[in-house]
């Protein structure tokens, strides 16, 4: 099974490379990412979080009962936000920044162009929770973590908590 790398691993700061080959190796990586995302109770995961610096991510938003269904899984390759509007403040967490949650401002509505696992070009419109998940995961592909978006005082609080946990 794939392992999730965590902050402060410097690999998380890498800018991921565009996917050019849509082959069985990519499909196996996407399947492995799905397994680890579910095991870790995540709603999204990017390839860089499992130490693969390519522009690939998964999102699977839970239903009203908190269940995730494979048919709701979005496999997103080479995403690009082509439209955004509005603002939403959302309490975010991250598999690569475990046990830390904080409010982050994001665009409320976005449109994303991307490719699926076979290289087909697609577009999707997302709002609210799904829009936040997209922006969070696309940030990963650009070497940005949600903690980077925090105001300085909240960022210092995070660094202090991290130091405290390392001492335990």
TrEMBL record:
PANTHER family: PEPTIDE DEFORMYLASE. Keywords: Hydrolase, Iron, Metal-binding, Protein biosynthesis. It holds the Pfam family Pep_deformylase. It comes from the Bacteria. The keyword Metal-binding applies. HAMAP family: Pep_deformylase. Its cofactor is Fe(2+). It comes from Helicobacter ibis. This is Peptide deformylase. It is an enzyme of class 3 (hydrolase). The active site is at residue 137. Fe cation binds at residues 94, 136, 140. Removes the formyl group from the N-terminal Met of newly synthesized proteins. Requires at least a dipeptide for an efficient rate of reaction. N-terminal L-methionine is a prerequisite for activity but the enzyme has broad specificity at other positions. It catalyses: N-terminal N-formyl-L-methionyl-[peptide] + H2O = N-terminal L-methionyl-[peptide] + formate. The keyword Hydrolase applies. Belongs to the polypeptide deformylase family. The lineage of its organism: Bacteria, Pseudomonadati, Campylobacterota, Epsilonproteobacteria, Campylobacterales. Binds 1 Fe(2+) ion. Its EC number is 3.5.1.88. SUPFAM superfamilies: Peptide deformylase. GO terms for molecular function: peptide deformylase activity.
